[in-house]
Amino acid sequence: MEIPEIYLLLFALLTGIAFGIFLEKAGFGNARKLVEQFYFTDMRMFKVLFSAIVTAMAGIYWLSYLGWLDITQIYINGTYIWPQVIGGVIFGVGFVMTGLCPGTACVSVFTGKLDALAVFAGMFAGLILFAELEPMLEGILSYSSIGDISLYELFNVEYGILTFVIILIALAAFWFVGKVEERIGKKAA
Amino acid sequence: MKTKQAYPYWNPYIVGVGLGILIILSFVVTGRGLGAIGAFNGLLASAIHAIAPDYAMSKAAFSNYLSGVEHPLRDWVVIEIVGVCIGGLISGVVSGRFKFEVLKGPRISNVTRLIVAFSGGVLMAFAAKFTRGCTSGLALSGGSVMSPGAWLFMISVFIGGYSVAFLMRKLWN
Which pTM was predicted? Predict the structure, then answer.
């Protein structure tokens, strides 16, 4: 089934608008709010991220179980162990410095936050820096690749069982971060 | 404008479930999830191409976005990010949170905030190229389809963030 490009782009626009509204309504257009995650005073970044992931994960599982979505046809991000671990740590440092990530920076700029404009400028500079250094990094960038397999293939467990286990872990984590917020919140008050 | 009081934020779990449904829809319709950093790269590639086409084509990080496409901006993730900007603007205005300001902790100057924000932006974009995706394209979307790299990335982001948060507390508190 081939969807005409114009409809896909219209869908992209509508998806983006919904994404932007969700991010803004979550408080993620505000760097100070988002960065509270790292000071334990408001863990909504964690809550939104993982409740979105487990919702999508469960939905995709059920759609594939019912035969409405072919799991082998969807895009699974390739795994490059060390680049993603080292890059992730650097990204986390940048996250605390900016209080934003690339997507939330868009919402922040378009709600008038001038510091997010500096983040935009920095990101463009970072992309140019990467383009310049890429030839030297080639060896590192594709190092420790294990391909685009999924966790259940990697651990060789049943897809549905792993989905269920991850949902249980997420529920426990939501309970835990609620407790953490309560304790830190009391201290702060 | 009936009131200056901003509307409260939504419950994070409601936002999360909404976002999750959006990701499911995206996978069903397009076979892929959401993204963000790719749009910045696409935008930058076409801007540089307009100014210095030879330079743009000489760098793999840019030419990837330029060769073999009708127009680099007629791309799924670019249009999606335009939507994010529109959605953010609408929601910000409707919720009473649109305001020109520099958000920062009380103990630093605006200039310090802008310099740190710029530097953090450099690190994030550079890192996102390293990891082949950011919080949207890798963590959210890849996490949903159980990419091991997406989960490694998320754990690493939290490790990186929490290990410097205390050192950088003056920026925010």
Answer: 0.95
B121 contacts on A by Cβ (under 8 Å): 94, 98, 105, 118-123, 125-126
- Asked if B59 lies within 8 A of A134 by C-beta distance, the reply is yes
Could you tell me which of B120, B78, B103, B38 has the C-alpha nearest to residue A125? B120
Six-digit token string for B113: 């905030």
Tally DSSP H helices, then E strands, for chain A: 8, 2
The whole-number mean pLDDT for each consecutive block of 10 residues of chain A, a chain of 189 residues, reads 86 97 97 96 96 98 94 93 97 98 98 98 98 93 93 95 97 96 76
Q: Which of B145, B164, B172 sits opposite A32 (nearest CB)?
A: B172
Task: Tell me which chain A residue has its CA closest to the CA of residue B75.
Answer: A9
Whole-number Å distance between alpha carbons of A51 and B129:
26
| Concatenated DSSP letters of A87-104 | HHHHHHHHHHHHS--HHH
Chain B residue with minimal CA distance to A110?
B89
